[in-house]
User: What shape does this take?
Amino acid sequence: MSEAGAPAQQPSRMARAFRALKDRRMAAMLILAFAASIPYGAIVGVLTAWLTEEKIDTDTIGVLSLVGIGYSFKYLWAPVFQTPHGVPFIPVGGRRSWLILCQASIAILLVVLAFSNPPHNIGLVALICFVILLLGPTHDIILDAWRIEVARSDEDKDLMSALYQFGYKSGGFISGFVALLVAARGGWVVSYVMMAGFVGLTVFGSLLAPEPEYNRHEHRTRPSFLPSVPVHEATPAVAFVSLCWAAAFCMIGYFAVMRLGFHADISSSAFVLEQGPLIVMLTVIAPAVVAAVLLVRNRAVAADAPLFHAGQSRAGKLVATLFRAIFDPLMDLIYRLRWWTVLVLALALTYRFTDAVWGSFAYPFYLRSDLDALGHTLDDVAIASKFFGVIATILGSLLGATLIATIGRMPVFFIGGIVAAATNLLYADLAAGAHAVDAFLAFTHLDGPLIAFADFAAKLQPHAIDLPPDHSRRLARLMITIFAENIAGGLALVAMTAYLTSVVNPRFAAVQYALMASLTMLIGTLGRPWLGEMIEKNGFHDVFVVTFWLGGVAVALSVLEWWRLAREARMKPESAG
Assistant: This one.
């Protein structure tokens, strides 16, 4: 064939991806992902460092951490943003107007938080944090919708996913490493105003982002069990579960308000041990039981159905929206897994417990100098946790992905549960004098280079002359411990993500994954007040030992799930034969 008649050679996938970087959508994606990470880092992360420096006890910090419950239930209001309606007073389009509203509100609230004087206004601090941690997940919901809607090809989707991760990690670097260094030199007010300024600047990302092209006359459909359930059953089912969730939120809210707003003498451990199981029952078990009843009673099956029907009332639309958000993912799990749904939900609730519950008390353990805490400086924590720790998380994620490709998903899932729990014992060793960590450093000869690096970092600290003689050795211990813990955490996170992805039905991917991912944070969030009170009574060492043993629950459940999947795989060839 002549050269003129030869078909034009298509650019490679990588070449098309790099070409797409010139697109304003990609620049907007990077900025918006940067904005998404700062609220969580500023409130769930470095705020505990500020509170620790202000001598606020871990019991109060544990209660305050309950304001992050919004990240565990964001899937509930995600259906509100299925349609691209906008904010009336921000005329820039549907998705962009909500992004701008969230970003501007978060920036303003971070400034208010900066001047809130936490020791004297802990109730106000809790209220501000609660609103920020509602706006943060709302921003995530809208950003995810925008990212999916503006993608024009598979290359776009892949590139935007990569840019999202890069932007999110970059924002975490600002709300972690940089925020701590600024606080050490200019104070917490300056640090929070800085973070607010970064969030405010991301409004330009929303203005840069093109609004997705919608076909407003398109009658979209989605698989649902709703057509199989009579209205007179669907409506009371939605109402009952909504009341259950409202009751659970009221229990959490009453406890937090009374403790933080009115300084009531209510035991955190009593709240968790007495009301925690009831909250789990109201938010997880009750919806699952109702979903099972609806499924069995009506012999329901999923079918493609329009989101709403023509002429449907607002009440009918609300019921349909909540049914799809609450019951569709649960009914599909029960339809496919039967009684094994209990095991899958139990794994979702417990697997990340050791990570989720520990996060709120990391900074108090690093910074406090009483009990059996470590007494480090803000610079120490920035270097060990937000520099070495981030690198370790990335390496752990790569290790997890490599192992999954090599030995399979469930072996890595099992290993991830073990190492995530076991690394708590490293922190217990630090609290007890670091004998095991010192032995490891000496055996591997890592103590030399790590101590030399710590000596160099110490010279850059604002009060270097006041550091104790053994500062560099103690920082070397902290760096290697955090590095090991974050390697394990990154591996466990990849394993959990792969497992949840395998469990999710692609037909219900959005709502089902959102539900399962949200449940991974629930138990850890509810357990923090109990552990905070335990720390004040017994110190940190006992908490690390307790969380290690509690992590064993997830390990045992992962063995049972591994056996179930292996048995299912063996049965498939037999049924096929």
